[in-house]
# Entry
Amino acid sequence: MLKINYLDKFDKNRYFKTISDKYFHIAKHELLQEVFCRVGVSHQIEQNGGILPPYEKTTITIQELFDYLKSHKIADFDTLFDGITLEDIIIGDIDTLQKIKNTIGLKKENKYIDFLFNYTNLQSKKIKPFFENNLHIATCYYCNIDYINTYNTRSGKKNKFTLDHYYDKGSYSYLALSLYNLIPSCYACNSKLKGVEEFTNLAPSSYKFNFNKKVKFKLLLSDNCKNLHIKSKDDIEIPLKENYSNEYEKYIEVFKLNERYQAHKDIVFEMMQNAELYPESRLRELQELTGIPYQQIKKDIFNLIDDDVDLSKKPFSKLIKDISEELKLI
Ligand SMILES: [Zn+2]
# Structure
């Protein structure tokens, strides 16, 4: 629903370093032993000035292992990742990731890929802290309903967000660590609703994501309401409508946005009651009485949101903004 506004300090190169600093302990992993054994004789030669003389080291980084698997043509790494760098995979933008995904396709059974891009190992120690420290996460980017902020405790930072893999990590495990494939979201959106659903070009991490501009909450009144005079929230509907296309139809459906916002019609009902209580003439009177500028009074009464505000900072900001437009308050 809302595009992620990445801050300057959200430095993708630092993320890459954070990820590629991870070391696998060679001696501890059967799979790594297997990798190096498969090379056989040629491995002996490489020990003297080769790409990686494994048995002289006790650890290996993701980058080294990726290069090693590629150069030794293990598990088709040379063809699968032909022309694709680790950097493309880890910090490529969403367009790059989509291209990689289309090139490589489903890879459910490659244990080397699963091992190399294992999300579980890095999630709590490296990936989530990177998001906690470098992005001011407030509400879910998919729904703008729930707070998913980070907070401080005596034992350090905690958070209420989950990281959804925009491209499912079960199907495309090589994208499990990709920075722009990770969308901070609430539990309901990530686990209960989205699951393995796939969209095309609709990632909140993309500069092209324009849900907020294209899709608006509309205000519909039941037939028995005249001149915006409504008696209860049951008299109104607030469906999301997309202008001129239906790119976001599936997105709205998957996240059950229309159904979920039904439960929050009271916010709109309150705005409408205020609109009735405070017509422009009343606001002008208040300006005369208090000396407070008319625009300020209006803003305070209706909780109006400025144009330059990042709507993800508070729950329901998009709803309030769109309905303010519908009520011609802004
Ligand atoms: Zn959500």
